[in-house]
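Per your request, structure below.
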């Protein structure tokens, strides 16, 4: 088996095979699309007429618009959640493209490859634009999957999207359950299995992350930032922030370079 330093998007274009991923083996076929996180050991065996297209990328180095992508439920489901749940569900929650969808994706990949070898002004920007289009398109395709496994993961992705859009508001677990089309107990079970946290713990984590950004990027007071991020009192904000970072908001801001 081998591995790569960067995440790798595996697109099975033709044929069939068995894919060894870490200590598990999965049957794959044309139309299957799934992400291999960085440093994941893997190899194909027992292949028949196999054609696989691999796209490796480092989104942080590319300047990928993560803040915007976090509002796309399908993106979160396919690229954040499905790989984490693979040990539980296997590849049963992978994306399966129909033939027209796969053809469209391969045309986009051809455009991406053309930009990467063009060596003209703006080629890096254009390549990032095409890659962003590809990933966004795959996220939308994932939301349309009828598989019960993918629906559950898409539901969690919908909650993550809802939290990203509404974290400053007063939210309850019932609000998050409605966003997922699940009961509160079902959401809690799936959410903890995927992210190791309850929906409310994830909400607090998101609020703290946005507070960290505001402490770094603005001159707003600590109290203003706490209210801006949905914390109902300065004491509660300070307590949540300290639990997450080990520092108070004021100490965190002073420690910044």
């Amino acid at each position: 088996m081998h591995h790569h330093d960067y995440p790798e998007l595996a697109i099975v274009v033709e044929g069939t095979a068995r894919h060894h991923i870490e200590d598990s083996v999965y049957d794959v076929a044309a139309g299957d699309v799934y992400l291999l996180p960085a440093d994941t050991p893997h190899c194909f065996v027992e292949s028949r007429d196999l054609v696989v297209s691999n796209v490796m990328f480092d989104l942080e180095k590319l300047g990928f618009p993560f803040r915007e992508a976090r509002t796309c439920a399908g993106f979160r489901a396919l690229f954040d959640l499905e790989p984490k749940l693979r040990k539980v569900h296997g590849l049963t929650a992978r994306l399966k493209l129909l033939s027209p969808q796969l053809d469209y994706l391969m045309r986009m990949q051809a455009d991406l490859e053309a930009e990467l070898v063009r060596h003209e002004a703006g080629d890096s920007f254009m390549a990032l634009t095409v890659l962003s289009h590809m990933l966004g398109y795959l996220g939308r395709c994932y939301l349309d999957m009828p598989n019960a496994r993918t629906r559950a993961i898409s539901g969690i992705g919908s909650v993550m999207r809802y939290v990203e859009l509404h974290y400053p508001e007063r939210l309850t677990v019932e609000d998050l359950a409605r966003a997922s089309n699940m009961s509160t107990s079902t959401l809690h079970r799936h959410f903890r299995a995927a992210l190791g946290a309850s929906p409310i713990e994830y909400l607090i984590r998101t609020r703290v992350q946005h507070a960290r950004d505001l402490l770094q990027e603005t001159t707003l007071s600590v109290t203003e930032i706490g209210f801006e991020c949905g914390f109902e009192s300065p004491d509660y904000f300070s307590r949540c922030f300290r639990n997450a970072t080990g520092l108070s908001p004021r100490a965190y801001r002073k420690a910044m370079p």
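The chain has a mean pLDDT of 91.

Regards,
D.
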